[in-house]
Amino acid sequence: MTSLNRMNDVSHEGVAAPGKVRRWRAFWLLATAFLMTVVDLTIVNVALPTIGSKLHFPESDLQWVVTAYALALGGFLLFGGRAADLLGRRRLFMAGMAIFTGASLACALAMSPSPNSPAAKVSARSSGLMNWPTRNSSSTLLSHRR
């Protein structure tokens, strides 16, 4: 095995090369961000009975809460893809992650369980902004050999 081949995979001390470590750290950050998005949508589903009882929604209208969240996420997913092309995936991911974290914290600290709160709307939209760069970057990280 030549030294050029060894440098791509493992350094001389048997420790993973810095580029490979950074790639996996970035992948785990992206996976965590995607998990946050999925957990956020799951929380909306779990909170439906509480939302229905506190806001006196009939059961037939509770599905609209999830639908409104999913439409906001999906609409901003399209917008996030185009914005990632124009502004850069990393910049959009970091901005979306910061906004999503702040909005999720505001939802957690809210005094009412209203799905119509501004924080809930911002949370769904920022989730869409951060989701496109997450999916695109994770596939790029795993598909390229460096």
Describe the structure.
- The structure is a single chain.
- The protein is an all-alpha fold.
- It has one domain.
- Helices cover 82% and strands 0% of the residues.
- The protein is built from six helices and no strands.
- Helix 4 runs antiparallel to helix 5 and helix 5 runs antiparallel to helix 6.
Q: How do the strands and helices of this protein lay out in sequence?
A:
Elements: H1 3-9, H2 18-46, H3 48-55, H4 59-87, H5 89-109, H6 118-143
Helix pairs in contact: 2-6, 3-4, 4-5, 4-6, 5-6
The helix-strand sequence is HHHHHH
State the assembly state of the protein chains.
single chain
Radius of gyration over all CA atoms, rounded: 20 Å
What structural class do the secondary elements suggest? mainly alpha
DSSP helical segment count: 6
Mean pLDDT: 77
Uncertain stretches? 1-12
Span between termini: 17 Å
Shape label: elongated
Question: Count the strands?
Answer: 0
Percent strand: under 5%
Q: What does the main sheet amount to?
A: none
Q: Can you give the helix content as a percent range?
A: over 70%
**Count of spatially separate domains:** 1
In a few lines, what is going on in this structure?
This protein is mostly helical.
Feature tags:
146 residues; mainly alpha
